[in-house]
Structures are given as C-alpha cells and as structure tokens.
Write a structure and sequence with these properties.
This protein is α/β, with parallel strands linked by helices and about 700 residues long. The chain has four domains: about 100 residues, CBS-domain, CATH 3.10.580; about 120 residues, PAS domain (Beta-Lactamase); about 160 residues, Alpha-Beta Plaits, CATH 3.30.70.270; about 250 residues, TIM Barrel, CATH 3.20.20.450. About 45% of the residues lie in helices and about 25% in strands. It is built from 26 helices and 28 strands. The strands form six sheets. An eight-stranded mixed barrel has the order 19-20-22-23-24-25-26-27, surrounded by four helices. It has a five-stranded antiparallel sheet with strand order 8-7-11-10-9, sandwiched between helices. A five-stranded mixed sheet has the order 13-14-12-17-18, sandwiched between helices. Helix 11 packs antiparallel against helix 12, helix 14 packs across helix 15 and helix 17 packs parallel to helix 19. It is elongated, with a radius of gyration of 37 Å. The model has no long low-confidence stretch (mean pLDDT about 85).
Length: about 700
Amino acid sequence: MTATLQLLDCLCTQILKVLPMQKYHEVMAQTNIKPNVFAVLDEEENFLDLVEAKRAALFPGRIFSDLLVRRAAETLPLNTSLDAVLAHFDANKSEFIAVLDDGRFVGVISNLSLFTALIKQETKVRQERDALIKQLEIELNYRKLAALVFENTSEGILITDADARILQVNRGFSQTTGYSTEEVINQNPSMLHSGRQDKEFYQVMWQSLQENGVWEGEVWNRRKNGDIYPEWLHINSVTDATGKVVNFVGVFSDMAPNKKLQQDLHQLAYYDPLTNLPNRRLLVDRLQQAIAASVRSQHHGALLFIDLDNFKTLNDTQGHNIGDLLLIEIAHRLQDCVRAGDTVTRLGGDEFVVMLEGLNAESKRAAAEAEAIAEKILHAINRPHILEDHEYHGSGSIGISMFYGNSTPQDALLKHADTAMYQSKQSGRNTFRFFDPAMQTALESRAAMEADLRRALSQHQFKLYYQIQINDRQQRLGAEVLLRWLHPERGLVSPAEFIPLAEETGLILQIGHYVLDAACQQLKAWENNPQAKQLQIAVNISARQFRQSNFVEQVRNVLAQTGANPLSLKLELTESIVLDNVTDTVEKMQALQTLGISFSMDDFGTGYSSLSYLKRLPFNQLKIDQSFVRDIDTDPNDAVIIKAIIVMAKTLAIDVIAEGVETEAQLNLLKQFDCHAYQGYLLGRPAPIEEFEQSLSQNSRFH
C-alpha cells in the first residue's frame, strides 16, 4: 500500500536559493527554472527569509534583502506531521513556510504544493486499488488470498452476486459505513444510498457495468449513524468461463477527510488567511476573465494598487497584532468602497489591489470613474481606526493602471499599477497617480543602468580624474579626485546620473572604497614625483560610506596597505552627512584627524548649516559651492553670501576654497573678498592622471 504522505513529499519544486545581495533579473538570467518563491540564504547557507517570485519580478533591480517581508517567514521542522502543517497554515496566516532539518534549510512548503502532493497521493491510491481489483478478478476463488486481502486493506470492499445481493464485506467496509457483516449480508447496496444522487445516476452506473463491466466515480452514501459522506467507488463485474456475470466487486475509499482538507487547501491557495480576501493567485485568474470580458463588452477596467503609508512604523511600535487588526479593518473598508462585481485582494503585507470591471467605454469617463473610487478609498483609509484601545490615523498611496481589452499583457498591468503607486509615494503619499508609460521607461532604464553599474567595477570602467587646486600666490595646493564612468556603449556617463543610483543601491560603498584606495595609491606614487609630492588629494566621501560603523577602520586599513601619508589626504563631506548625527560625525572626524587627515565641507552654503553645529565640527576647510561663484560678478546677493562665508570661516579659524572658478573676473573678486584658494576650469579642467601629471610639468603659470 502507498506509504503515508510525509512533509518531505510536499515541498515546492519551483524554488531557487539566492543570496541577499543578488537581484531577481540577475538570477533569472542564469537559470531556466521559473520559481514560485526564492529562499534567501546567507553565505554560510543560513536561512534568512522567503520572497515570492511574483513580488521579486515587480522589482527586478532590487536586491533580495530589500524585498524581505516585514514579518519573518515561518519555519517548520522536517518531522512535522501534515495535520500540524495545515494547522500551522491556519494559525500563522502564511503563504509559504520554510522547512528546516536541525536548522539546515531543506525546502519550502506552500498550500499549493501540499494540495498537489495530496492529488498525487490520491492517484497512487487509485492505482493500487485498480491493481487490487485485478488481483481479485484473478484470484477470487482462492479464499485464503481473498481473506488476506480483506484483512489488510483499509479500503472498503463488498462482493455481491449477479443480482446485487451482498455476499461478503471486509473490515474496511464496516469501519467506513458502521455496519457489521451480519447486518448487510443478503442486502442490496442501495441500503447505503443517501438520496443525494437520483435514479438516473444509478441507471448510468448499471448501464456502464452491463456494457463495459466496470464503473468508477464519486458516490455520496449514508453511514449507519446517519452521516452522509463521499466515497470514491470502483465496481468491476466478474464473469465465469462462459462470460456470464457471477459477481460484482466494489472497492471504495472514504473521501470525507480529503474533501475537508481539499476545501481548506483551496481556501489557503486562493484566499488571504488574515483578511479572507482573494489573494494574488485568485486575482490573476479574475484579471484574466476581466480582460476577456473587456474584449467582448468593449468597456474599460482598472487596477488600483494600494499601499498603506508608514505601516511598518505601526507594526514596530504597536506590535504585529495591532498591524493585523488594521489590515482586517482596511479590507472591510475597501469592500465597502467598491461595487458588487469588483474584486478586492490582498497581495501580502500592507499591499492591496482593487480590480474594477465594466467601467465606461469612453476612456476619459472610465478614468474619472476609477478616480472617484480611488478618492473614496483614500477617504475611507483616512478615517480613524480603533484598534483595541488605540486610535490610529493612517493614509494610503494608490497607483491606477487602466486596461481595455487585451492590449496590455496581464503581468504588465499589475506592474504598471505598482509603478504608479510608487509615484504616489514620491508625490507626498495619501494620493493616487495614474500609470504613465514614461514612468516604466525610466524604471527600466534605471534597472539597466544598475546592472551596468555593477559590471563597471569588475570591468574597470571607472576612471579617476584630477582637478588642480591653487592659492592666490599661484602655488599648487592639491587636487580633487573626481570619478568618471567610461561606459563601453554610452561613453562618458555623468556622475549626476550614476552616483544617486549607486547611493540608493549600496554600490557606493564598493565604489567609494575603490576611489579612496586608488587616491591613496596615487599619493604614495607621488612621493617620488618632484612636481606632485607636495600635493594633497581631496576625496569625496558619500553619506552611506561615512555612516558605516567601521568607516574609520576602513580608512586606517587603506592607509596602512598603500603606505600613503595621511597628511596628504583630505576628505570632503557634505552638510547633509555631517548634520545627520553630529555626535557620531565628530567622533569619526576626530579619530581620523589624529592620523593627520584633514576635512573639507563640500558645497558649503547649499544646505541648512547651523552655526552651532559648525562650531562643534572639526573642519579644516569650507568649500564655497560653485552655484554662488558662478554669478559672483553679476548677482550682488551671491557676492554678499560669499563674503559672509569667508568672514565666518575666518572667525572660526577655518580655511576657505572656492570651486567653479571659470573667469578672471570671478577670480579677482574672490581675491578681493580675501578668499585665497581656488578650483575651477580657469585654473585647470579635470583630467586623467597621465594628462594631469603632464600639466604639472608643462604649466609654468603655477608652481
């Protein structure tokens, strides 16, 4: 007989193991597998979390660690029973559960994989039953074998004569029906009929037996105690040597436990356990139907992608139970906002999707109808929520994607709505936006640039340029190192394009370390260059780079490995970096200054500097931003600002350098204002190291 179904038999087959820093589009480019879920494991194979594939596909350019759900995935030991698994699904409202064996990741189980395994188990049972029937047909006259089969099968078996009078039943029959052997001998099997199936049903059954000698199907019978139950019944006719029917053999299995399990699994597979709303799988099915209906009716439809604003803060401060209460309340309010034929779904976390069907055939009116419902939803979310004894005021951001017929692929519609939702977030939240194709183009372009950016480091596409800094006595003070990206197809990419992306993705940490290391190597090389050995190199430090807890140690290591003189190294920080956490900033700056490193505040005057903070921060230099220098000779306000910066810096005993000096008029005014250090195109354009070093020996203007 078929072995008992174990948890190991029910694992998802379509999964991929990924690292936290990998991205969906990179992983999918290297495999032919189409996973349903990704298991995120660290370098030591320790399990971290699960990410649904469809969620990851919405953000192909994000690393998996950014996609981890707010609540850690549930885990189960490998020896968990299937009843316990189902109970776990019910209790923990989970879509996927990781399976561990002594802490080692084994696989993932989902309600769908459990349902699939059950179906396979049923198929095996049927195959065994068929084999059993064949065996009975051959060996019915061997009483010992028949008795052995009777005693060792859990299926119910009954044997009748040609007139359908019961001759024998087995223990499985009695256990299922409640009737003893004595109670059913010489009775007709119709004694078990429940009344759920009519005469025509049984006429078709007997007709099949007479014509084909076999019938199989689902029958609803009644137990002795009155309970009605489903069973899967297989009947074979047994003939003698002349071909005359002498017996009928029926083998059946009680389907009641599986029916309940199937119903539970269907609920888990297609509905969200927490809110009882349809889930993503059911949404996809209904969206397919809605698109087909739109083709026939020529009416518009819409997807509204709803994300609750600041939901994580509520979860973190009030607990997940309060967060769950909010999600349940939001589900009720969303259902109150839509029409009877519309669909409200929960994708997971704090994300909901409303699908509107049968909107106006005219696109502008359809959009107006979708807009009206979006506004209704926003108002509903904005109303106070009473969560136990806590009153909560929340908001949501909505992205709207319209559809008409099958002009837009199904997957793209949801992606478009999600894109528009993020536009709502960027527009201040608590609002809605319609999808604009330009948004998607920008996102795809960004994803492509991110992929190129990752390759740029390994393929040595980054180049360092150096721009001279001089004083009012024509003496070379140093050079600022500037990063340039020489893309093999796009040519020179502006830092304004790729630096913000590098900051956002975290690649700036690797890039920043590369620049710092290269600059220090250059300082070491210049020790043997008479024209350059006195120069100081200024290196821009990014916010994420500086905020690393081990940043000071990183700089120490670079200096130790390159042998560069720290007195020749200057780090440039922006106002936004230093004012983020003044205490931490001061500690790091002082630690590095003890090594001999100096600091310059970059783009001074463009932020929100506080003089009290500036007094605490141990800067050696302020760099006047080029936006002030540019119009110094035409805009009196810029001239006044520059004068004020210079006076303030002198008061605090801080040096000043002006960047963006492009004309003699600007240079002369800066000298008049008592600014003694300069940088800009007038004095020297940024150049690769070879050109820069050549200019040091050829340019007699500076010494």
